[in-house]
Specification:
Structural class: mainly alpha
Strand content: under 5%
Distance between the termini: 100 Å
Number of strands: 0
Shape: globular
CATH topology of the domain at 49-237: Growth Hormone, Chain: A
Order of helices and strands: HHHHHHHHHHH
Number of helices: 11
CATH architecture of the domain at 49-237: Up-down Bundle
Helix content: over 70%
Length: about 290
């Protein structure tokens, strides 16, 4: 019995190899969990750069759009002018959007976004020159809005399609929420900031803010690699009209998405003209 007690006490005094192995396992598992986090950060870095540039550009565009609408309101006081400006901003989206996605799938998406940002910047730069030399006319603003809207019809699908290739599938819902948050934040921050700069700065300087933010977005895109999807034989053989018809067939089969699209179209059709005339309501009725 004494020998057994001594052996037991000696065993208790010895270091426990099991605990050492468990400690090593914890260290190994910690190292292995840190590595995927670093890999995820590296894989998301190009998207973060692209998203940051586009976020800056979005705020600039929203601010300038607000100031242009209020410039037209204060200079003309015409509901017709505002209605035409709204049509110039929406018509290219309605006419081009059904085909834009098919073309974006065939083109280089990074170059498409850069070209769209450059066209938007040049259209605003045209207005800057008109304001600077004092030769601005209402139709100049219509033309710039028409060109910018047409370029934007290709830019947005290219960015959405690129996001699905640059972001891991498990993060797509988060990125979608982040995009909606950005849209909402721009809609909240841009109007009061636009009202402030409209009082403090001339229109040519305000418009240059949009040009600068567009250049930032172009620089961000130029600094990264945007992956391209594989060009399958089916994509090469199918026409743009065929792609569009496939989209309509998908909507018809997917009743939930079709219902959402119809509701969005109805809300835009009803709410769009009313929101465009809010500046006239503010100035004429509330004397703002």
């Amino acid at each position: 019995m004494k020998d057994s007690d001594d052996s037991r006490s000696n065993c208790e005094l010895l270091p426990k190899p099991v605990a050492i192995y468990r400690t090593n396992d914890v260290k190994l598992s910690t190292m292995s969990s840190e590595q995927p986090m670093e890999d995820n950060a590296k894989s998301l870095r190009p998207f973060a750069i692209m998203w940051g540039g586009q976020a800056v550009s979005l705020f600039g565009s929203r601010l300038v759009r607000f100031t242009i609408v209020w410039y037209l309101t204060l200079q003309t006081g015409s509901a017709t002018v505002l209605a035409i400006a709204t049509i110039m901003a929406l018509l290219p989206q309605v006419l081009i959007a059904p085909f834009a996605g098919s073309y974006v799938d065939r083109w280089n998406r990074r170059r498409t976004m850069i070209a769209a940002d450059m066209i938007i910047a040049l259209s605003i730069l045209f207005l800057v020159a008109m304001f600077h030399f004092g030769t601005i006319e209402v139709w100049h603003i219509y033309l710039a809005m028409l060109i910018g809207s047409a370029a934007g019809a290709f830019h947005w699908p290219a960015m959405l399609a690129s996001t699905s290739l640059m972001v891991p599938k498990k993060h797509l819902l988060r990125v979608g929420g982040l995009n909606h948050t950005l849209q909402g934040a721009a809609g909240i921050i841009a109007p009061p900031l636009g009202a402030l700069v409209l009082i403090l700065l001339p229109m040519s300087t305000i418009l240059m803010l949009d040009v600068v933010t567009a250049i930032i977005a172009i620089g961000a895109l130029a600094a990264i690699h945007v992956p391209q999807p594989e060009r399958t034989s089916l994509l090469v053989e199918k026409s743009v009209l065929g792609d569009m018809m496939d989209g309509f067939r998908f909507l018809r089969k997917t009743r939930g998405i079709l219902l959402i699209v119809v509701m969005a179209m109805f809300l835009n059709l009803v709410g769009g003209p009313a929101s465009a005339l809010i500046p006239i309501l503010v100035t004429n009725h509330f004397h703002g």
